[in-house]
Amino acid sequence: MRIIKQFSEKIREINARYARPKVEMSRAIKFSLTGLRIYLFVLVVLLLYKFITLIPAGK
Amino acid sequence: MDFFSTLYYRTKKVLKSLKMYLAIAGPGLVVMIADNDAGGITTYAATGAKYGYHLIWFLLILIPVAYYVQEMTVRLGAVTKRGHAEAIFESFGAFWGWFSLLDLMVVDWLTLVTEFVGMTSALNIFGVPPWLTVAGVIGLMGIIVLNGRYWTWEKIALGFCLLNLVYVPAAFMVNPSVKEIVGNGLIPNLPGGLNNDLFFLLMANIGTTIAPWMLFFQQSSVVDKGLQEKDIKMGKADTLFGAIITVAVAIFIVVVTGTLLHGVPIDDAATAARMLMGINHFTGALLAIGLFDAGLLGAICISLASSWAFGEIFGWAHSLNTNVKQAPWFYASYFFTLITAGIVPLIPGAPLVLITLFVQVVAVTLLPAALVFLILLLNDRKTMGEYANTPLQNWITGGIVVAIIILSTMYGISALFPNVFK
Fold first, then answer.
1. Gap between the Cα atoms of B97 and B377, Å rounded
2. Which residue of A has its CA nearest to B97?
3. pTM of the model as a whole
4. pLDDT per residue over B97-118, tens digit each?
5. Is B402 on the interface with A (CB under 8 A)?
6. How far is B94 from chain A (nearest CA, A)?
7. Chain B contact for A51, CB < 8 A?
8. Would you call B142 an interface residue with chain A, using a CB distance cutoff of 8 Å?
9. Which burial class, exposed, middle or buried, applies to B57 when counting CB atoms under 10 A from its CB (0-12, 13-18, 19+)?
10. Between chains, do B380 and A20 touch, taking CB under 8 Å as contact?
11. Are B355 and B120 in contact (CB under 8 A)?
């Protein structure tokens, strides 16, 4: 229990430490990060679709 | 007299450069040769068996591709003195940091399972039971890291890199036709046209050349070795040398299977080794030894890539120059990854095919992000100063990264939906 508590405290500490991105958010960087978000969203949707179609097939 | 003094001066200069190179050599060579891991050996063996020597030209193109991507990690590591995971957390915030770290953990673990599958099936050819291979490998890897010195670890890893060259004598033993290799292999051609099978194999070759763990590993390795800005030139040379060797080894594997198994369908390198043993016993044995070594090298690097990344973010001591007492969490995460991955191939009926599929798909989610972050970080002039990307480097690396993202995405999608590009 103590280890879990320490671990969650550590994660909170890390989140606080890196809360603000250090790199200057230029237009190119914002564009790249938005592109990455869309890309990953599409991939996750494809993965979910694959699993949904796999379940009824019983594979 | 002038001639002799010039010769003496130049020889001394070359020897000095060589001495400097040998001191700095390591991260680039190890990461590049470890890139020819168990999955890589299977891909190259299948390429040779299916298309003979016809795709050697394509492998040669992968030298600059691998070099330009990996040399960026040398500059980033030497200038910032931070690993790739820490650089992403710091520059792009916790969301992208956690995404990269957790994705790296999953993809590394899955890849590690495939390395153990490769190693157990390779030694099984010689009658070694899988449990003994797994126990032996974990014991060996424990001894390698627990000596408490990065230098020793690196030299042992380089020793295993040397063993990767067993494919060179194997290729000579099969007496390939040099005329055919040059005529069919060095002139760009697409045997049978660009169909689904060829496209899948080309993408598999790219996928084995650039993997997410390589970016994290080499940058952390550069930091752990303590390379400075002044060492960047030699670090880049080390990476280029490694890229040339890794592709040369791949070509020798293609030559072996292209000569003896051309037209035979190959699903994994261990099957290829068994088949080769029936034709030429020593060549098959060399392929099996090479497969074991490839899996071991991959395992050595991949397990460290995760442990370094976790150490950087959680603030644990995370150097091979520390012992277990000084860095308990670093070594605990290293052995935890290693042991859990090693157990999987020993479980009867473990979904190994599904795991292989997952490696490809999960790697596709991490690779584009890691590559885009790499280019963005290399353009941060405030941090990188004179070592930031030049416009020419941006064009070259940008083009490579866009091509890799498109091809690896198509590879991942075709792994999920095999009929989509037919």
1. 13
2. A18
3. 0.86
4. 998 888 888 888 988 998 898 8
5. no
6. 5
7. no
8. no
9. middle
10. no
11. no
